[in-house]
Amino acid sequence: MPQNEHIELHRKRHGQRLDHQERKRKKESREAHERSHKARKMIGLKAKLYHKQRHSEKIQMKKTLKMHEQRKTKQKNDDKTPEGAVPAYLLDREGQSRAKILSNMIKQKRKEKAGKWEVPLPKVRAQGETEVLKVIRTGKRQKKAWKRMVTKVCFVGDNFTRKPPKYERFIRPMGLRFKKAHVTHPELKATFCLPILGVKKNPSSPLYTTLGVITKGTVVEVNVSELGLVTQGGKVIWGVSVDEDKAGDHGHAD
Amino acid sequence: RLKHFFVVVAYYMIPYVDVERLLIQFQDEAGEPLGSPFDVPLDITPDKLQLVCNALLQKEEPVPLAFFVRGEAEVVESLRVCVKALGVETEAVLPVVYQPQAVFRVRAVARCTSSLQGHTEAVISAAFSPTGKYLASGSGDTTVRFWDLTTETPQHTSRGHSHWVLTISWSPDGRKLASGCKNSQICIWDPVTGQQMGKTLTGHTKWITWISWEPLHLNPECRYLASSSKDGAVRVWDVVLGRCERILTGHTQSVTCVKWGGDGLLYTSSQDRTIKVWRAKDGVQCRTLQGHAHWVNTLALSTDYVLRTGAFEPADATINPQDQTGTFEELKEKALQRYNKVRGEAPERLVSGSDDFTLFLWNPAEDKKPLARLTGHSALINEVLFSPDTRLLASASFDKSIKIWDGRTGKYLQSLRGHVAAVYQVAWSADSRLMVSGSSDSTLKVWDIKTGKLHTDLPGHADEVFAVDWSPDGQRVVSGGKDKCLRM
Q1: Using a CB-CB distance cutoff of 8 angstroms, which residues of chain A are in contact with residue B271?
Q2: Which of A83, B275, B359, B464 could form a disulfide with B482 if both were Cys (CB 3.0 to 4.6 A apart)?
Q3: CB atoms within 10 A of CB B289
Q4: Residues of A at the B interface (Cβ-Cβ below 8 Å)?
Q5: pTM, 2 dp
């Protein structure tokens, strides 16, 4: 049976004294005096223990008070001037940290070594053989099927001569051989008709690259000397990525 | 050669009797003896000495020379006076140093004479006084330090700023130094005592980017200065009363540079891509010069050097720089003469360098349109500077090169390459023949402009070089940088 709730029970049943709050308040305010009286009058071992305990209590109290003080008054700590003094002309500029500069330099060098003509190639669908090459039947009974004819636009070059017809496996029809390409500069929004120098890379297959077949996503070299563009090194021939949308004739310059 | 010599000596031999004589040996500034010792009468005057010396030098036309007995006292009236003043015994051979005067040539600085330590943070600005007597440097440790040039040791440390001292500027008479800090305060210092003069000038809300004094020939008291700040305003201050006279607003972004021209016009450049021309008397905006495509970083006036040195003529420099003496009127007169000589007939020209990799040459007093657009740099331009004779223009850029242009037409002359990192500042020697440049790669390079080649490489700093200055008497170059020390 519960033995320790009689006080609470009584309070719940009968409430508190009418001047309970007043008495409580006054008792609490007397506590300081009573404590100090005790501390003064105590003697012996009891006193020692009490004093020790009281000392540690006081230290704790002081600490919390100080913390509260600091929170109340927000002080600007302007004793220390920040590090990293720079002259006025460098103030508005974010300097690159040294490490970043070095790593950038190394990356640049690696890129240069890897390939000068690396143009960001969009991912294009690889064109299968059936699409690009058409089977040509030859022979007396039209049974042999080792010849192929290119069905897409291609570039052959100036010094191109056909192999003897008996031996040529890949036929590039004259109608599909193009020498010039329309190149659009994306920033200037101007289109130029520039002679092609060569097919650099066809993403579908290295075979198409050697044949000079130009399909969507092919990187084509174009002669831009007419435009008179100069960089630090002199004339620059840009790599051009051909976009097939314009019927294989147009290209966007990079 | 002997014939000349005998003729000259014969002239002096005539009044032979009862004149005290003295053995002298001509020496040039480096101490090399010229000819052999010979005796002259004691009351010989400088122009007679000049005749003799010119005969020995055997130049086509006689060069005006000044003579210093034992390198110290100048022979002004006669040798007798000097000898008496110095108390030299007349038996020994007396060395007399001769110095060519009018056509002066500044020798290239070749070595680091000392490394001045003392700052506890990076040195961000350094400047010689107009006569070259004092040197002041401002740093990130919020102090301005004055250095004694003869002993190359610290002289005064002036505390008063609460943040980095971004910019310092000497008054044209060399008696005051103004410094601006990142907490938008300006203090005026006395170089002799190192104490602050007057009150701290407050008023700007953001950091000070540039300070420019009123030229000496407009006001010999050196009372007014203009300061530009990141808050977009330019303030004209009265230093004597310690208050702001005028506020020039108009720029919408940070004002990067302000120059007080010799004709009473103020030129300000800003990050809002414009340059504004104001009348200094009443603060009225005269003109806005537009054309740049990005922040305008720096301005240079063709008369910059002569406005900086005021009444001091670099050709009159002596080994020990002296203070400017004379009443206000004399100084004003001298400064005005020098200014008119340099300016010539045409009005002042202004060059602005910008983040858009180009410079514009303007005639701001007359025209809104630029005279020329100077392209060629491949990175932003940090500083532009006219040569002291205004014939050449140098632009220092972050593309590691310095380009020299013609000062009148803006035509490209040459490129000086050699630095391996961004070039921060340049300084011309007083005879416009040499130029020193300090860069982020911690070296300074002295360039010979005539040949366009590197003259001397001055390595030695441990970190980036932020500030470079060549003293107007041509004797020293100071450079300060991130490694907290100044090198002379």
Answers
A1: 92
A2: B464
A3: 22
A4: 78, 81, 83-92, 232
A5: 0.59
Q: What is the mean pLDDT of residues B216-229?
A: 91
Q: pLDDT per residue over B160-178, tens digit each?
A: 999 999 999 999 988 899 9
List the single residue in A85, A92, A232 with the smallest CB-CB distance to B164.
A85
Among B121, B209, B271, select the one facing A88 at the smallest CB separation: B209
Query: Which residues of chain B make contact with A90, given a CB cutoff of 8 A?
Result: 466
Instruction: Quote the CA–CA distance of B394 and B397 in Å, as a whole number.
Output: 10
For B73, phi then psi, to 5°, come to: -90, 135
Q: Lowest-pLDDT range, B33-37, B98-102, B146-150, B369-373? A: B98-102
Residue type, B431: D
d(CA B398, CA A83): 24
Tell me what ipTM this predicted complex has.
Answer: 0.72
Which chain A residues are Cβ-neighbours of B163 within 8 angstroms?
81
**Nearest-CB residue to A85 (from B122, B167, B256):** B122
pLDDT tens profile B12-28: 544 444 567 778 888 77
DSSP B137: E
* SS percent in chain A: helix, strand, coil, step 5: 40, 20, 40
Closest CA relative to residue B436, chosen from B463, B460, B470 = B470
User: Tokens 């097939």 correspond to what residue?
Assistant: A244
Q: Tell me which chain B residues have a C-beta less than 8 angstroms from the C-beta of A86.
A: 122, 124, 140, 164, 466
Which of A106-120, B252-266, B295-309, B339-353 comes out lowest in average pLDDT?
A106-120
Give CA–CA dist A88/B3, Å, rounded: 64
Beta-bridge mates of residue B215: none
Chains A and B form CB pairs within 8 A to the count of 53
Residues B424, A232: C-beta atoms closer than 8 Å: no
pLDDT in tens, B413-444: 899 999 988 999 999 988 888 899 999 988 89
Q: Which of B123, B208, B209, B354 to mutate to test the interface with A (most CBs of A within 10 A)?
A: B209
Q: Over range B322-335, report the average pLDDT.
A: 81
Phi, then psi, of B321 in degrees rounded to 5: -65, 140
Radius of gyration of chain A from its Cα atoms, rounded to whole angstroms: 45
Supply the DSSP string of B173-235, one letter for each residue. TSS-EEEEETTSEEEEE-TTT-PBPS--EE--SS-EEEEEEPPTTT-TT--EEEEEETTS-EE
- Reported as a single tens digit per residue, the pLDDT across A127-142 is 788 888 999 999 999 9
Cα–Cα distance measured from residue B17 to residue B264, given in angstroms and rounded to the nearest whole number: 63
